[in-house]
C-alpha cells in the first residue's frame, strides 16, 4: 500500500510543491492546535448536525456535507486564508491565471457504515474539457483523527499522469491517515475518494479548495456569502472568495438603478462598498500588453 509523504507545518512552499507535483498529494502535520480544532467544531457543529445525509452513492448515503463556511464560521475563514496554504495555492496555480479564487468550502462528515466513495479526480467538476492546465489546489483539514478504519481519504500517489478512464487497483490506493490538526494537500488531478467508515465514530474533515480565477466555482460564493456578509470580511478574503476581477475583463457588472444613475460598469468590489474601484480598475494597459507579449512569444516558438 503506497504511503503519502508527510511534511511539518513549517515546510516551505517549494518543499510542498515539489512533493505535490511529483505525487499529487501530501500531508502537512501539526497545522491546527487542539484549541483551534475545538473552535472549528463549536462554530460548525450546529450546521453539521442539521445537515441531512447524502442522496446518492457518490456523495454518500451516510455522509453529510455542509457548506457556506466563510459566512458561517470565523475560524473557517482563518483556514481559508491561511498564509501557508494560500501562498502554496497561488504559486501552484498562478502559471495558469492572473488571480486564484476559493472554489469550495465543505465539512465532510463520514458516518459509521459509509462505504468507500468511487475513486475520482476533483478536476472532473469541469468534465474532462481542460487540457494542459492544472485547475485546482485542494486541501482536507483533519478535524478528527483520520484512520483507515474511520474513512481516511483514499489517495493514489503518482496518479497525475493516469488516463481519466483508468481503474486503480487495490495496491495503488493509499490512505491519508493523519492526526487531527493535519492537512491533506492534493492536486485536482490526483485520483482519490472518501474512505469506508467501519468504525463506530464519525470522521470529520473540512474540504477547502482553490481554483483559477477564470473558472466557474463549484460552490457559488456570491450566494453562499452574499454582499451583506462579504462586506464585513477582510479585504483580502473578499478578493479570495471572488469579489474581485478574475482577469482583464472577467467579473464586472452594471449596478441596478435608473438610467444615468451611477457608473455603468464596475468590478465586484463595488458591491461591497469599495466605490474607489470604478471602471478604470477593471483592467490595465500593462496587463493587456503582457497578454500580447505572451501571444507573440507563443507564435515565435510555434
TrEMBL record:
GO terms for molecular function: 2-oxoglutarate-dependent dioxygenase activity; iron ion binding. The keyword Ion transport does not apply. InterPro entries: Phytyl_CoA_dOase-like. It comes from the Bacteria. The keyword GTP-binding does not apply. Pfam families: PhyH. Keywords: Dioxygenase, Iron, Metal-binding, Oxidoreductase. This is Phytanoyl-CoA dioxygenase. It comes from Parvibaculum lavamentivorans (strain DS-1 / DSM 13023 / NCIMB 13966).
Amino acid at each position: 500500500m503506497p504511503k503519502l509523504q508527510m511534511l511539518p507545518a513549517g515546510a516551505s512552499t517549494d518543499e510542498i510543491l515539489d512533493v505535490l507535483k511529483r505525487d499529487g498529494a501530501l500531508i502537512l502535520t501539526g497545522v491546527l492546535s487542539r484549541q483551534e480544532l475545538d473552535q472549528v467544531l463549536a462554530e460548525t457543529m450546529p450546521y453539521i448536525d442539521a445537515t441531512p445525509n447524502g442522496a446518492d452513492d457518490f456523495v454518500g448515503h451516510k455522509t453529510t456535507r455542509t457548506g457556506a463556511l466563510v459566512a458561517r464560521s470565523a475560524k473557517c475563514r482563518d483556514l481559508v486564508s491561511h498564509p501557508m496554504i494560500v501562498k502554496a495555492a497561488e504559486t501552484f496555480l498562478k502559471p495558469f491565471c492572473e488571480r486564484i479564487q476559493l472554489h469550495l468550502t465543505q465539512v465532510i462528515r463520514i458516518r459509521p457504515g459509509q462505504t468507500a466513495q468511487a475513486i475520482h479526480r476533483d478536476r472532473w467538476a469541469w468534465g474532462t474539457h481542460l487540457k494542459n492546465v492544472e485547475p485546482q489546489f485542494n486541501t482536507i483539514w483533519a478535524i478528527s483523527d483520520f484512520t483507515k478504519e474511520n474513512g481516511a481519504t483514499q489517495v493514489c500517489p503518482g496518479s497525475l499522469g493516469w488516463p481519466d478512464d483508468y481503474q486503480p487497483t487495490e495496491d495503488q490506493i493509499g490512505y491519508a491517515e493523519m492526526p487531527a490538526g493535519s492537512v491533506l494537500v492534493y492536486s485536482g488531478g490526483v485520483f482519490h475518494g472518501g474512505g469506508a467508515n467501519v468504525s463506530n465514530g464519525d470522521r470529520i474533515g473540512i474540504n477547502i479548495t482553490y481554483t483559477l480565477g477564470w473558472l466557474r466555482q463549484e460552490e457559488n460564493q456570491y450566494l453562499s456569502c452574499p454582499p451583506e456578509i462579504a462586506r464585513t470580511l477582510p479585504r483580502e478574503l473578499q478578493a479570495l472568495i471572488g469579489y474581485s476581477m478574475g482577469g482583464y475583463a472577467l467579473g464586472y457588472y452594471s449596478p441596478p438603478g435608473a438610467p444615468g444613475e451611477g457608473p455603468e460598469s464596475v468590478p465586484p468590489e463595488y458591491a461591497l462598498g469599495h466605490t474607489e474601484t470604478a471602471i478604470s480598475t477593471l483592467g490595465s494597459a500593462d496587463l493587456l500588453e503582457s497578454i500580447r507579449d505572451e501571444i507573440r512569444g507563443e507564435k515565435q516558438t510555434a
